[in-house]
Amino acid sequence: MSRVMAPLRSIASRMIKQRATIINRSYSSAGDKLIDLKVNDDTGVATVTMQRPPVNGLNLELLQQFGSTLDQLEKSKCAGMILTSSSPTVFSAGLDITEMYKPKPDRVKAFWTALQDAWLKLYGSSFPTVAAINGHSPAGGCLLALSCEYRVMVGPKFTIGLNETQLGIVAPRWFQDSMRGVISLRQAEMALTLGRMFSTAEAKEIGLIDEIAKDKADAISKAEEFLDKCSNIPAGARKLTKLSFRQGPLEWLQKNKEADLNIFLSFVTQPKVQMGLEMYMASLKNK
Length: 287
Prior knowledge:
- By secondary structure, this protein is α/β, with parallel strands linked by helices.
- Helices cover 52% and strands 13% of the residues.
- The chain has 11 helices and 9 strands.
């Protein structure tokens, strides 16, 4: 247990210093608007903003609203989507720890299924997608960014990465596939096994992000420029080319959703894992 808790305390301390506290102690009510959608009538570009203070923790309600928003955009045949955050310092701190600590069986199943569904919709969207990363983006936040086709990140002080191993957690195969599709296999292996968080400059150097912006407005502008380029390509050809690259990971999760869910449930309900989560949450409260 000491080997598990050491990295937990380390990552907790770093995240607090970065003002990216992972835990939100109360669930948002079903009526809260956790996703804001705005569509530019002239360009057809949709801006989707995560707005669950303080750090856009990915809980059941946020994931369900995000999935519904993606469904809405598919039906509207939007020209492209920009995913960003209402927070000035955090894109998304990843999965809400409270969803996994002493979970209620029905809710935790719905939570993981909502995450699977949101990823399938985002990773396999017919429209082009850009992440305007205007803050720290660890774990699940990084997953959302990786699932988009293009990434613009505000520099230089923010970080991004799939850091699950630092919390004693193994990133699921489809998390790993999302990173393998963006950077080299060797770089992905090292990043995932070490749970490495990259600075904006480091992320740009290895291709984890595509551009660096000076602020959120600049990130949105650069995202719009990318989507404008996409608008000059026949939509059908662009869509089929994108999906041919992403077919393997999408088909794997579609065929293995139940097995993936059972692996998650088996892991998260282990007494050792629950004890680790409890101690991690306590360390955050004491800061």
